[in-house]
Amino acid sequence: NAGVTQTPKFRVLKTGQSMTLLCAQDMNHEYMYWYRQDPGMGLRLIHYSVGEGTTAKGEVPDGYNVSRLKKQNFLLGLESAAPSQTSVYFCASSRHNYGYTFGSGTRLTVV
Amino acid sequence: AQSVSQHNHHVILSEAASLELGCNYSYGGTVNLFWYVQYPGQHLQLLLKYFSGDPLVKGIKGFEAEFIKSKFSFNLRKPSVQWSDTAEYFCAVNGGANNLFFGTGTRLTVIP
In A67, A80, A108, B7, which residue has its Cα 20 to 30 A from B57's Cα atom? Predict the structure, then answer.
């Protein structure tokens, strides 16, 4: 089925470890986004991309890096994980700058 | 800067009760407005959207929302809720930026 696929779905990291979250979409969407969702804070934008090879910072970019080498993939990296990065991470894509299709999320725990 | 306020953090209703969830945004220009729903353990799904035209928009599952430009509001309504409507509801706005701005969400609990 067409849509947005996130891997992995769950992950536990130790403080200081690194990891990469992968987001893949097969809808030929130009825009891709990484959000984090925390209780009582809604969704906050980490980074986004308006096209292949481009990335931009969102509301809460510190501690994260991203890459969009291929149009269909948007990677979110944590270089040195911290407990404050414990969250649920959602990727989304869209043809325009609205009308998102969301992935199923990645639940990350940093201990 | 654009922002969205959802003043109801948690709403508890009995089945068949009517629902209205508030959403106010801050942006002076033309906006696109959205309501998303997140069922427990799932990702966000689009309920309805407003771009232009009739300010009363109808979405899936009997939900509707009214855009009142003078009040910068886009409240979500449903005449009669069901237990299956238990979920978290997010209002979002796009006023020409490259992304959507989301509210903090309203958790709806429907008691059978």
Answer: B7
Which residues does A62 contact at the CB level (< 8 Å), separation at least 6?
A: none
Contact B4, B95 (CB under 8 A): no
Tens-place pLDDT, residues A16-56:
999 999 999 999 999 999 999 998 888 999 999 999 999 99
Tokens read off for A100: 């998102």
- Considering only the beta carbons, identify the residue of B90, B99, B104 that sits closest to A48: B99
Report the residue from A42, A58, A102 with minimal CB separation from B104. Answer: A42
Residue keyed to tokens 């430009």: B69
With CA atoms as reference, the chain B residue closest to A44 would be: B102
Q: Is the pLDDT of residue A97 over 70?
A: no
